[in-house]
Amino acid sequence: MKISKKAQYGLRAMVYLAKAKKTCSLRKISFAEKIPFDFLEKIMSQLEKAGLVKSKKGTGGGYFLARKSNKISAGQIVSLLEGTKPVNCSCCQRARRCMTKSVWRKVELSLHKALDINLSELI
After folding, report:
1. Where are the domains of the chain?
2. Cα–Cα distance between 33 and 17 in angstroms, integer?
């Protein structure tokens, strides 16, 4: 299983904001975390639309966490940027009689359990 760069970068940016505990510019996050600026801009926009970060324009502007770091989990971030299920059985024609469905359910549960950690625990 492979987690995309989008999810990896998104989680790193969120941990950076949690650690900083202040408004940070995209340039600063991009430089510090070695994340391509244009890609980070798209990721942060998605995180903002989901209500995980807020932005401030103008001098001293940038992004900051919309909630306390102990109220945002890695799972929320990864699910938002990756999708909620590693395998989507609901759209498969064989879903009713699939012999491997239980395996994918176990993978999904394991992934959710592993990502059930909040940003404050990561810093």
Report:
1. 5-122
2. 11
Instruction: Please give the Cα distance from 22 to 18 (Å, whole number).
Output: 8
On whether the CB atoms of residues 67 and 14 are closer than 8 A, the answer is: no
> Checking DSSP bridges between strand 53-56 and strand 62-65, what pairing results, if any?
antiparallel
Q: Under CATH, which architecture does the 5-122 domain have?
A: Orthogonal Bundle (1.10)
What's the residue count for the chain? 123
**What pTM did the predictor assign?**
0.86
Place of tokens 């059985």: 89
Report helix angle 37-49 to 5-20, nearest 10.
Answer: 80
pLDDT given for residue 96 in this prediction: 75
76-101 average pLDDT score? 79
Q: Which two tokens stand for residue 113?
A: 């359990």
| Residue 22 burial (CB count, 10 A) | 10
- Phi/psi for 65 (5° steps) reads -65, 140
User: Among 18-32, 54-68, 91-105, which is the least confidently predicted range?
Assistant: 91-105
